[in-house]
Amino acid sequence: MSFLAEVLISLSLVVSGVFGFVGSYGLIKLRRTMQRLHAPTKATTLGVGGVLIASMIFFAAETGTVSFHELLITLFLLLTAPITANFIAKTYMARNLPEAELPKNDAGLGWSVYADPPARSDKASAR
Amino acid sequence: MIRRLVPHPLLSLTLLLVWIGLVNKFTLGNLILGLALGLIIPMITAPYWPNRPRLARPVRIAEYVAIVLWDIVVANFQVAMIILLRKEPDIRSHWITVPLRLTSPEAITVLAGTITMTPGTVSATLAADASAILVHCLHTDDPNAVRDEIRSRYESRLLEIFP
Known about the structure:
The complex is a heterodimer.
Chain A: H1 3-29, H2 33-36, H3 38-63, H4 69-96, H5 121-126
Helix pairs in contact in A: 1-3, 3-4
Chain B: H1 2-5, H2 9-23, H3 28-45, H4 58-85, E1 94-99, H5 105-117, E2 121-126, E3 132-137, H6 143-161
Antiparallel strand pairs in B: 1-3, 2-3
Helix pairs in contact in B: 2-3, 4-6, 5-6
């Protein structure tokens, strides 16, 4: 393996370690649930991304073939991380957060965690 | 005829690429198997996406993906700086209401995912009639600027992609 590849692999691993640590530290340091949600959704993305880049460079340098698995892991991670965060946020809002603490929206209907969607009388009668 | 056989070309192409990526080896057999999956799965699942939106402007999609990937990297550094450098009482979190111009569920899903992955914001919930999205911002001094940036940077591009 060339020296350049080794440097690049080490660099990505160190970067990913730092961001993984910062993400976990954020969980301890931040006080509110909604604030804590920011740490794992962002800082950890680059943490995992760094390991994946290191893995791609390693296999490219070691075996000479490009591995697609890492790209797929990145894709699935980018698809699933926001959904997990959204589920946690909604659960927290439904259990612990009174609607009065939230800003209003222009429609005046309330947020979907607390309020039902408006009745679709216009479409139902048209059918 | 082609429409009936390939009802969802984009899904077929995605399935083919993901299949080749999963087996991690490009051979003729894998290509044929991937093509078969890409043809059969969209046909079987067609009832589940009755009103799917048509995507326009492939160049814009590529631009959007590039911008979001770059912003994810920037977001990582920004959030890391906030966590490491700011004292806990100095972190001013805000709830922000972002009125939506997008209407299709797919477009709103993409926007909500983008908001969660990018600088200092997490999308929390939608208004009951999906006319606005509630966003939690980790730290900002000017909530209105964050709202305007989401609208101009992401939503206006998505409006072009989902016509």
